[in-house]
Amino acid sequence: MTATTTTLSTREWVEAFTQANDQDPEIGAHGKYFTCSYLLDMEDHLFVIRMNAGKVAEIAIDPGPLDAAYQFAIKASSATWREFGKPVPAPMFHGIWAATFQRDMRLEGEILVLMQNLRCVTRQIELLRTVGIPV
User: According to the lineage, what is the superkingdom (predicted)?
Assistant: First the structure.
């Protein structure tokens, strides 16, 4: 028996991710100063997520190079992101640091901004396990 996974459309993913983030008690508790913009590069799709005080202000889907500014980027293959989205990810797919050291994930841009918001960004990556992955 094989498990089947359903890939969300990009619009469905944006709605589900926004709702999960905005209703998450952990981000609510830690996100008072979680204000930044960052890029999730999932190979097949790009998302620029703009956060304001712990809430999703906007998510740009597949923006052009000058359409949506961001401070840092988390980039990986769609296969890596799909592993992140599993309810119980395989070893080295459980967090961005493990995937950066052992897999094809890259962290680029203003890493200081990432570090300042690390707990909330980490929680958002964990939310992918319940929301799903759009690639």
Answer: Bacteria
Distance CA 113, CA 34 (A): 10
Q: Which domain holds residue 54?
A: 11-130
CATH of the domain at 18: 3.30.1050.10
* Domain total in the chain: 1
Query: How many C-beta atoms lie closer than 10 Å to residue 43's C-beta?
Result: 14
Residue-wise pLDDT for 96-123, tens only, equals 888 888 778 999 999 999 999 999 999 9
pTM: 0.89
Residue 96 inside a domain? The answer is: yes
Residues 30-52, mean pLDDT to the nearest whole number:
97
β partners of residue 38? 49, 72
Query: Which residue shows structure tokens 């469905």?
Result: 12
**Residue 5 clears pLDDT 80, i.e. is over it:** no
Q: 73, 32 in Cβ contact below 8 A?
A: no
Q: Give a yes or no: residue 79 inside a domain.
A: yes
Model confidence pLDDT, tens digit, residues 50-76:
999 999 999 999 999 899 999 999 999
Number of neighbours of residue 94 by Cβ within 10 angstroms: 17
82 is a domain residue: yes
